[in-house]
Q: What sequence folds into this?
């Protein structure tokens, strides 16, 4: 690898519930070092933080970059953060509360650190480098166990009073509908997430209407993977296709409401479910969204599949650090 | 009136379906000249534009200000606009389409002109001078014949691909609900606007359950005013109170979805219906919104009544001109 310039090296770290990924980028956002590690969230915040530090160090070694050559570090977290203070407010899967992560990492590397929500990071990554490049308003939706969302508006990640990401998963879609993990009823995510699909598919499998699923996963919710849903549909399990299409339709209707509120140029759909069946899913969402908006909005937006896969988050983290520390100084650095 | 400085005089004009209001403001946004005129929309765009010009001229005369002392003019329009081009895309009540209003007014006054949506102007007015002062995210909702909405985020009016205001009135609240003017079903505005309330109240009056309304307005929708609804409730017409409370509840539920998406600091409710019964209505909306959000969002927002009444729009227009022409040059001026 060639000699690295001292400036404009950016590091991203995407912390997930099961694994973390650190990547070192050059000024053109080409990856020059990369390291994965298991999160081991059950070992507690101190242990996870140590593992994060080690992962970043090893990615820097691979990139042949010293910490003091780094312009900034961006870290994506599965939960709400206070960006200004650099604090992780909560990360349910990791059992974290109020962890001053920017300060901890800054102490270690003596470089500016910005902490952001992982879904926001993913949407920002797609906005900078992927499917939503240079949109004025880019809305990202990631259906998984829950349904995460984020919005980049004129180059800024929209954040609210709570500094959280967009909680599109808890937009109400079915008055008095199914019980949601948040305690409300009829939220988008309890009606249309991959988990919602799995529950309905398991029911169909139990009744003998989804033979491929029954063979591959039985009726255990946690065993039903997105790839199996795609396989079952390809094998002709009509019930599975109907269930997936219905969930996409419900999500599309919620997208319609977002279009009425924010009038985005582009809606990016990402995550394992979308990756397993991009055409069927994206078209079903787009079609339902078009039916759910006023005529004058029908042609104002596109619905597309994310392009960057797992890299969206880590690229978004590094790029958000670049944006943050190129335009302002943060508390952690002053 | 004292001698007026040559700079920092701002003019607002709020164009409504029935009347227009122009106000000249000094640098501290004190009104120094003001003129009202009927719109007479049926006479066509040329006639209305001439009346707008005359109204601004007369307000300037009252303010003892020459046109060349004006720093900028902001005009609020009841419909979607293209702000960058200064074009009114559509104003249904005026039968306008693609009117290059900024150009026309600039030709007349030789001063920079910005055109914006009237609801956006109202929300911006409340953000700058009224109930939403210095909020990070201020959401404004104005239930009337329809339900208008707007959002000011970090000092900017949020605009979408279509350059329109936020179409909160067409967020879906009742799947397969009542028919809306936009062609969809179950939109917020067909379920909960003042018009929706009037229709339900007229039905109750017809059945003999709203005696005060029957006496004051009969069962003719257009004759039922917000003040009569308030009077009927005060007189003990229980059916009217239940209908208004239900509409407020439906709107509060939609506010809940907006909170999940945008996490605003403050939601400002304005317009005649709110002014006629601020306490009952605002509390009913707030209570429903709190019930419709996840526990961690319950304390993140306030719901309040607008403070500026009819002045919100015209102040917002002038202040938006100030913001626009203090920070950038527009096409109309270069």
A:
């Amino acid at each position: 690898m060639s000699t690295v310039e001292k400036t404009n090296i950016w590091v991203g770290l995407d912390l997930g519930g099961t694994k973390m990924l650190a990547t070192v980028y050059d000024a053109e956002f080409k990856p020059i070092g990369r390291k994965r590690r298991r999160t081991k969230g059950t070992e507690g915040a101190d242990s996870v933080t140590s593992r994060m530090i080690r992962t970043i160090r090893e990615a820097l070694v691979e990139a042949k970059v010293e910490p003091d050559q780094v312009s900034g570090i961006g870290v994506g977290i599965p939960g709400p953060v206070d960006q200004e203070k650099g604090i992780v407010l909560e990360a349910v899967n990791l059992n974290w509360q109020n962890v001053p992560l920017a300060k901890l990492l800054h102490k270690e590397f003596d470089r500016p650190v910005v902490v952001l929500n992982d879904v926001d990071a993913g949407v920002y990554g797609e906005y900078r480098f992927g499917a939503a490049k240079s949109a004025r308003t880019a809305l990202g939706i990631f259906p998984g166990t829950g349904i995460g969302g984020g919005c980049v508006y004129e180059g800024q990640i929209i954040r609210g009073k709570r500094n959280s990401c967009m909680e599109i998963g808890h937009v109400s879609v079915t008055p008095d509908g199914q019980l949601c993990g948040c305690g409300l009823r009829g939220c988008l995510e309890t009606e249309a997430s991959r988990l919602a699909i799995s529950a309905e598919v398991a029911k169909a499998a139990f009744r003998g209407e989804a033979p491929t699923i029954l063979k591959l996963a039985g009726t255990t919710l946690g065993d039903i993977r997105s790839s199996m849903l795609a396989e079952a549909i390809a094998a002709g399990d009509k019930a599975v296709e109907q269930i997936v299409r219905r969930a996409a339709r419900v999500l599309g209707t919620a997208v319609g409401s977002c279009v009425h509120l924010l009038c985005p140029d582009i809606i990016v759909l990402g995550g394992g479910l979308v990756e397993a069946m991009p055409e069927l899913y994206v078209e079903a969402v787009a079609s339902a969204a078009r039916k759910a908006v006023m005529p004058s909005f029908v042609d104002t937006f596109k619905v597309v599949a994310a392009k960057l896969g797992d890299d969206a988050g880590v690229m978004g983290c590094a790029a958000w650090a670049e944006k943050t520390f190129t335009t302002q100084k943060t508390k952690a650095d002053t």
About this structure: Chain B is about 40% helix and 20% strand. The interface with chain A takes residues 80, 136-137, 149, 151, 153-154, 156, 158-162, 164, 166-168, 170-172, 174-175, 182-184, 253, 256-258, 260-265, 292-297, 300-301 of chain B (CB under 8 Å).
